[in-house]
C-alpha cells in the first residue's frame, strides 16, 4: 500500500512546488487622517506605512478646506529621506475616492505617506487612505 501511494504523493509534491508563489499581500487596510492646514501651517503628512506592491495608493477624502487640497504621495528612500513619488507631480484633490499613481515601490521605497499642502483656504482635511489598493476607483492622476 505504501509503495502504491509514494508515487502519488511525490507527484502531488512536485505539482505544488511548480505552482506560482502567491503574490505578497497588500497593505490596503484604511487608516484615518485629519489635519488642520492654515497660513502658519501649510503642510501636513500622515505617518509612513509599509508599501507592499506596485499598486496605486488609495485615498478617500471626506473634507478639504475650500474647494481643493494639494496632495503628493511620498516614498521613504534608502537614503533616509521622504521623496515625492507621485506620477505627474503634485495633484489637486477634491473630496471623493481616488487612486493616486506613484512609483514608491518601483523606486525601492517600502514605506509611503500622504503629504497635503494648503490650497488657498485654511481648514481641515480628513478622510482615510491606504498605501496599496484593491478595487477600481477614478484616478487622480
Q: Can you tell me about this structure?
A:
- There is one protein chain.
- The protein has one helix at residues 2-18, and strands spanning 31-37, 43-45, 49-50, 57-63, 69-76, 82-84, 91-93, 96-100, 111-117, 123-130.
- With 141 residues, the chain is mainly β.
- Strands 2, 3, 5, 6, 7 and 9 form a six-stranded antiparallel beta sheet that branches. Strands 1-10-4-8 form a four-stranded antiparallel beta sheet, with no helix packed on it.
- The longest helix is centred in the N-terminal third of the chain and has 17 residues, at 2-18.
- The protein is globular, with a radius of gyration of 21 Å.
- Residues 14-23 have low confidence and may be disordered.
CATH class: Mainly Beta
User: What is the CATH-assigned architecture?
Assistant: Sandwich
Q: Which fold name corresponds to the CATH topology?
A: Jelly Rolls
Overall pLDDT: 88
Largest sheet: 6 strands, antiparallel
Q: Any idea what the CATH superfamily is called?
A: Mitogen Ypm
Number of strands: 10
Amino acid at each position: 500500500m505504501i509503495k502504491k501511494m509514494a508515487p502519488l504523493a511525490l507527484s502531488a509534491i512536485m505539482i505544488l512546488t511548480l505552482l506560482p508563489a502567491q503574490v505578497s499581500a497588500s497593505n490596503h487596510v484604511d487608516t484615518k487622517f485629519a489635519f488642520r492646514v492654515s497660513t502658519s501651517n501649510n503642510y501636513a503628512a500622515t505617518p509612513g506605512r509599509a508599501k507592499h506592491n506596485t499598486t496605486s495608493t488609495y485615498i478617500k477624502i471626506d473634507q478639504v478646506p475650500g474647494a481643493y487640497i494639494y496632495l503628493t504621495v511620498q516614498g521613504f528612500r534608502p537614503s533616509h529621506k521622504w521623496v515625492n513619488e507621485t506620477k505627474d507631480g503634485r495633484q489637486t484633490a477634491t473630496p471623493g475616492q481616488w487612486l493616486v499613481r506613484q512609483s514608491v515601490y518601483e523606486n525601492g521605497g517600502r514605506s509611503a505617506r500622504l503629504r497635503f499642502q494648503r490650497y488657498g483656504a485654511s481648514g481641515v482635511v480628513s478622510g482615510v487612505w491606504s498605501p496599496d489598493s484593491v478595487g477600481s476607483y477614478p484616478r487622480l492622476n
